[in-house]
Amino acid sequence: MSKRMTNKNILEIASHFNLSGEVQAVKECHSGHINSTYFLTCKNGNSTKRYTMQMINTNVFKKPDEVMENIVNVTGYIREGLVAEGIDPTRRTLNVIYTTDNKWGYVDSESKYWRFYDYIEDSDNYNQVESTEMFEKVGYAFGHFQMQLKGFDASKLHETIPNFHNTEWRFNNLMDSMVANRAGRAQSVLSELRFAIDRKEITSFINKGIADGSLTLRVTHNDTKLNNIMIDHDTGEGICVIDLDTVMPGSVLADFGDSIRFGASSAAEDETDLDKVYCRLDMFEAYAKGFIEGLEGSLSESEIRALPMGAIILTYETGIRFLSDYLDGDTYFRIEYPEHNLDRARNQFKLVADMESKLAQMNAIVEKYIK
Ligand code: GN1
Ligand code: MG
What pLDDT score was predicted for residue 5? Predict the structure, then answer.
């Protein structure tokens, strides 16, 4: 448990939610760069029930109630769809637990915003793929997630982080951070800045595609990291897509690309031995298969053709976000040591360079799905 949060604090916060029984155990979850997460076990007579408790990072999500409104609407829509298909929605979509005064969240005495979900039992999330079979199933689930939201009215969604996957905006942000040089680190990252600037032309790829109609605006997840999906213990199926804080209108390239960036990498996002960091084409192929199948033929030819560029762009974009944060003095992503964001940026750029060298092979893989 972090130094700041004590069990007493947690119990006090939990007492404001409609939980079943008494809190018996609290465990901190260490993955995720933005919010803080805990798992709580509650006991009621002989039965136990688990919950996921999260503090929303309001430095990143300025309007947490809007985040929650999106989540309640999106999960409600998915749940109705599952029920209409005769599928039990339990464990297949997040279930928000309301406060005792019927709200989506509780603001504590330190102005921190807390929310609760039912814990997704008999499943796990992963930080590294274990097999191509697993990654294909993850791809299917993220593709299917978009299908589940196909009829969802996008105008109901709040933009929880403006310009989230606007790569051109992210690039301009990097330039601003470089000039402002708030942490005095700009001189030490000249080669990384050069790498980013040399690739400026790719930053407009998605915006241009949306403008010229070759890419469709859909309701997308926008944070399709491998650890944002729960994998069923028995079937290995990607049973529940989690971390719905950034569900917003976007391009399919962002969801595809972000998954490849994280899951098809041969190494962790912060691996510092860059010889170990490359894009695994077997994983790329497995994910592409699952994702395209999950989208049930709704991808256009131009979208399928653009998927490999999506992988490059999202990896590049994440790299420049880490680099900007390093230049700003680490105010956005959680870090474990001072150079963490720089190590992450270097890692992502290595992956970009590797993907660039494999673009023809990635193109050949997706080409197979064009009829
Ligand atoms: C953050 O919170 P987490 O770890 O799921 C970030 C993503 C980045 C990712 C990089 C709201 O995701 O955009 O791709 O870190 N989420 C937000 O690992 O900025
Ligand atoms: Mg997450």
Answer: 73
